[in-house]
């Protein structure tokens, strides 16, 4: 996305959250394939309900049914889906799978999660942040603590687009992707990378994610040892700015990256953030697929 496109999507998402699109069906007659290699609660529910509320239809396809790259080539799956549906959302293990789908399907392909990035989540995150601080986020301190994973990578990209001051606090050896960090350098944007937990102090937004993602279960014990001390607790939330908020994309592994007292803390906006997955993704679907309605 460009910064202008992001602004358009977020403005629409805010409007949808206010109920201004109730009863409007701009995607009537359109269908979205939901392709899942990884399990999902929020991604599946919000894309499915979002299509329904916009007048369209969603069909969920598990990897048992498709077998991306095993039962059938990814390129063949793409060429089939483009003949039947008007868009694809993929929640997959590898970023390359999404590139293959997009390269061979002449319809929009949305990243619902990959090993590299999680941009649909970040749309909801920044909608939530804007609800708290307004649309001009330049200079706001967003501090991400934990694994330098797809969420951390996408936070860096959002910092490039919005002008937020992004800090990644992570143990040695768990830093974000080097190519994503280079994206920030090329854009002339400063990203602070540190192992010092003191960087949390004074944050406008404190964000965390699980230490052990799906597919990393074999590393669980090693990761728990590496991330010891990086847990977001109510005490840590008292060190962020008085107006600061806490976000977590969920699911939470309580006792590891956070505790119930943090997600239920007065500074937590975790469940507003979860609600905004619906509104932000509806806005994305409308802007990606809405113009197709006239051609359908």
TrEMBL record:
GO annotation (BP), single: L-arginine biosynthetic process via ornithine
Coiled coil: none
Positions of the Aspartate/ornithine carbamoyltransferase carbamoyl-P binding domain: 2-130
Keyword Amino-acid biosynthesis annotated: yes
Residue ranges of every copy of the Aspartate/ornithine carbamoyltransferase Asp/Orn-binding domain listed in the record: 139-288
Sorted UniProt keywords: Amino-acid biosynthesis, Arginine biosynthesis, Cytoplasm, Transferase
GO molecular function: amino acid binding; ornithine carbamoyltransferase activity
Listed Gene3D superfamilies: Aspartate/ornithine carbamoyltransferase (3.40.50.1370)
Documented EC number(s): 2.1.3.3
Highest taxon listed in the record's lineage: Bacteria
PANTHER family membership: ORNITHINE CARBAMOYLTRANSFERASE, MITOCHONDRIAL (PTHR45753), ORNITHINE TRANSCARBAMYLASE, MITOCHONDRIAL (PTHR45753:SF3)
Protein family according to the UniProt entry: Belongs to the aspartate/ornithine carbamoyltransferase superfamily.
Protein name per the record: Ornithine carbamoyltransferase
């Amino acid at each position: 996305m460009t910064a202008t496109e992001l602004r358009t999507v977020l403005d629409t998402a805010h409007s949808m959250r206010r109920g201004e699109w109730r009863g409007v069906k701009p995607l009537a007659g359109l269908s979205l394939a939901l392709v899942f290699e990884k399990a999902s609660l929020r991604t599946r529910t919000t894309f499915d309900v979002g299509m329904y509320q916009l007048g369209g239809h969603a069909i969920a396809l598990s990897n048992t049914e498709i077998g991306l790259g095993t039962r059938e080539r990814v390129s063949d799956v793409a060429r089939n889906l483009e003949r039947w549906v008007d868009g694809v959302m993929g929640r997959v293990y590898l970023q390359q799978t999404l590139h293959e789908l997009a390269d061979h399907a002449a319809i929009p392909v949305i990243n619902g999660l990959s090993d590299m990035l999680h941009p649909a989540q970040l749309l909801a995150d920044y909608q939530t942040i804007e609800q708290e601080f307004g649309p001009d986020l330049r200079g706001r301190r967003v501090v991400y603590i934990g694994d330098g994973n797809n969420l951390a990578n996408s936070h860096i990209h959002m910092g490039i687009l919005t002008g937020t001051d992004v800090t990644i606090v992570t143990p040695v050896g768990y830093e974000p992707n080097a190519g994503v960090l280079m994206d920030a350098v090329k854009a002339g944007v400063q990203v602070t990378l540190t192992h010092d937990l003191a960087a949390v102090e004074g944050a406008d937004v404190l964000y965390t994610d699980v230490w052990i993602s799906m597919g990393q279960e074999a590393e669980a014990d090693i990761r728990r040892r590496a991330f010891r001390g990086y847990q977001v607790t109510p005490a840590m939330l008292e060190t962020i700015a008085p107006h600061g908020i806490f976000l977590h994309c969920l699911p939470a592994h309580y006792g590891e990256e956070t505790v119930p007292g943090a997600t239920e803390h007065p500074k937590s906006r975790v469940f507003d953030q979860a609600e905004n997955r619906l509104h932000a993704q509806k806005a994305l679907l409308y802007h990606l697929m809405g113009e197709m309605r006239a051609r359908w």
